[in-house]
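Entry for the shared binder. Reason: the reviewer on the internal report wants the predicted structure included alongside the sequence.
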Amino acid sequence: MSARPSANSALRILMLHGYTQSGSLFHAKSRALEKAIHKAFPGSTLHYPTGPIPLQASDIPGYELSSGAVSKDEATGSAKEEPESFAWWRRRDGTSVYDGIEKGLDKVAQTIKTEGPFDGVIGFSQGGALAGMTASVLEEGRVKSFARVCEGDSNQLGYPSSFLGEGGNPIQPPLSFCIIYSGFRAPSDHYEGFYTPALKTKMCIFIGSLDTVVDETRVLALVDACEGKERRVKVCHHVGGHFLPGQKIYLDAAVGFIRDCIAGVDEKTLNRQSDESVENMDGPF
């Protein structure tokens, strides 16, 4: 087990992109947050893996061919355009089943093994949902609780074996923090192991009031899946859509949350300070 980082120490943070993005694209879109983290915690490194499932133009709502990359059609040899977009899983049509989720989890586990261990995780949209799952499977006791949830229910997704290390324990200690932007709880009963018992990792969850991609009720379902949600989870609303808010007030909220988590600030103080820093201040809008 690694020691808790000090309040000003360099951090190693796992960054999980959203559906249709890639690690490099998420890196470009989170520059303001990365800069704020580097300023607060000099020497920190942010790691941006890319989801294992390549997407085609037909997988992307509103995609226009002119914005894609040109490649060759293997069947005809003619030029075609394809987006450089990836996912951690695909939702099966007409269901809440996530096809390929095992591959997505395996990619995260591989990144932890080769680039970790990590102090925390930050995720956006589908990557936000995955960030919550990643925090979950690294919590103490989660291997056994998965087994209890899956007992007698073949439809349940079991504990991902790629996250098991020596002695049948998770491949790294629990995360100190988890920050989620427009993330959500997996709605299908197939994934109860991630949420039963409730998540214990301290979380800061951002919700865009104008987000038309991930409805607020889906985000709040993830909040409800957290233990002692009034104490362990900070919910921050921003007047914006489906993106990482880059205004200073929200960057300060994220950095302050990280600092409090790694400093071991008690949960009541953590929640109160976050409330005062975001909810009751005038935003730049």
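Summary line for the report: DSSP finds nine helices and twelve strands in the chain.
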